[in-house]
Amino acid sequence: MHFMYDLDSTLVDTRAVRPYMKTRPGRLFAAQNINQITTTADDVLKRLVEKQHKKGEVSIVTDSPEDYAHAVLQKHGFPGDIPVYAVANKPFNNGLSRAITDCRKPLEEIVVIGDSAKDILDAHMARVKSIGVTWGKLFIQEQLSLAEPTAIAESPEDLEKKLYFQEVAGNKYEPRRNPISLLYLPREQISSTAPETTNISIGQYTSWNNGQDGFSELSSRILKFKMIKDLSLEELNQEASDEYFSGGALKKGDSFLQAFWSLKEELLSKLKEIDFKDCLVVATPNSLPEYCYRTDINSLFVANAFKENGFVTSGRFVFRAYPKPEDHSSVRSPEEMHHKTIGLKKASSKKFKQIIIFDDVRTRGTQSTALARTLRYFEFGDKFYVVTFGQTG
Questions:
Q1: Global confidence as pTM
Q2: Are residues 145 and 254 in the same domain?
Q3: Smallest Cα–Cα separation from 328: which of 206, 243, 224?
């Protein structure tokens, strides 16, 4: 057997490190000064990993940087020569595929262990078995269950039993059985003429790049809004604030709710030209499975910002059926990929004169174009607005 562990919140409780990981200086500080940050590791896990390591049966696959990962493992006394596959880009199998190739074990002998749906989906993409663990506190058991791991472990002791004696040992890999059933645009329609859209945004958005020129106050608020996906609704309602490392220390910014409501007011002021009496507002979908994030921010914004101002909103019916990386680099998914992954949960019972497609940021517009084409085909409407906080340059 070969066991491939996630690091953060699986092998080591690193919740206190999360604010440092938001900036490059913070990541460097965490890697070089991990002893100054509170982290803990369970003795049962350390013993289990050490036993597996002696047999050459363990690797670490993490989205975190390599120098940080080694620093955390060293701090807690894990064997120093465990293979580490960092910046793994879960759930897209980049780090995991390298780990699988290097361990030279058959797929049926590999088990992935992690605390998030992304770990489990990573395993599904590689067609290997997986165990979701619940002690990380960031994801609830229901979210892990929806990703369909081979088993779920509720404690390190439970993990050890399941690895060797229960659901995992000897069982074959089983693919996911329950992806959501959706209506997709027929393949022959993908190349049809795209609907015309009217694009409305507050202003320009520049993604954070270590203080680059052009990172405006609006960009800062949009970035805070995007971070809400990693919060629970309870944390958001408790006025959780952005915390990050800058200038050699942790700093606390404005609350996420402040960014949420300020963006709402500015955006709604831009929509005065739209006759909202027969206008349906649709939130663009976060990646599915939707439980990869703790809050569906686009749907949350539509429900709280548009409905109370007279626009027609609907419960979520637009989904993305497979995970998709949040890539803000020059590499973009083609429009066809959006059509393959975006689907509707139901057909329209009423045709609206106008459709607002809301997304937090618009870059090249391929997702909104694909969604408009799909909504038009299923007769939701034929005049489309794409409404965003920011337009990337």
A1: 0.84
A2: no
A3: 206
Residue 114: CA count within 13 A, CB half-sphere:
31
**Distance from C-alpha of 83 to C-alpha of 102, rounded to nearest angstrom:** 9
Q: How far is CA 245 from CA 22, 178, 203, in A?
A: 7, 41, 27
d(CA 387, CA 12): 41
In the chain, the number of structural domains is 2
In sequence order, the 6+-apart residues with CB closer than 8 A to the CB of 161 are none
**Gap between the Cα atoms of 232 and 293, Å rounded:** 9
Indicate whether 114 and 246 sit together in one domain.
Answer: no
Nearest to 101 by CA among 73, 61, 46: 61
Element (H, E) at 47: helix 43-54
Give dist(CA 203, CA 221) in Å, integer. Answer: 12
Q: Are residues 153 and 44 in the same domain?
A: yes
What type of residue is 152?
A: I
Buried b / exposed e along 184-202 (16+ C-beta atoms within 10 A): bbeeeebeeebbebeebbb
DSSP string, 183-215: B---GGGTTSPPPPEEEEEEEEE---SSS-TT-
Q: Cα–Cα distance between 314 and 307 in angstroms, integer? A: 9
| Phi, psi (degrees; rounded to nearest 5) at 167 | -60, -30
Give yes or no: residues 79 and 228 share one domain. no
Q: Write down the pLDDT at residue 328.
A: 38
Q: What is the Cα–Cα distance from 279 to 313, expressed in whole angstroms?
A: 9
- Among residues 354, 356, 279, the alpha carbon closest in space to that of 318 is found at 356
- 342 and 249 in a single domain? The answer is yes
- Give the range of the structural domain holding residue 114, as residue numbers without chain letter: 2-164
CA dist 120 and 125 (Å) reads: 9
Helix (H), strand (E) at residue 54: helix 43-54
- Give pLDDT tens digits for 200-250: 999 999 876 544 555 688 988 998 899 888 888 888 888 888 888 888 999
pLDDT per position as a tens digit, 33-76:
999 999 999 999 999 999 999 999 999 999 999 999 999 999 99
Q: Are residues 156 and 268 in the same domain?
A: no
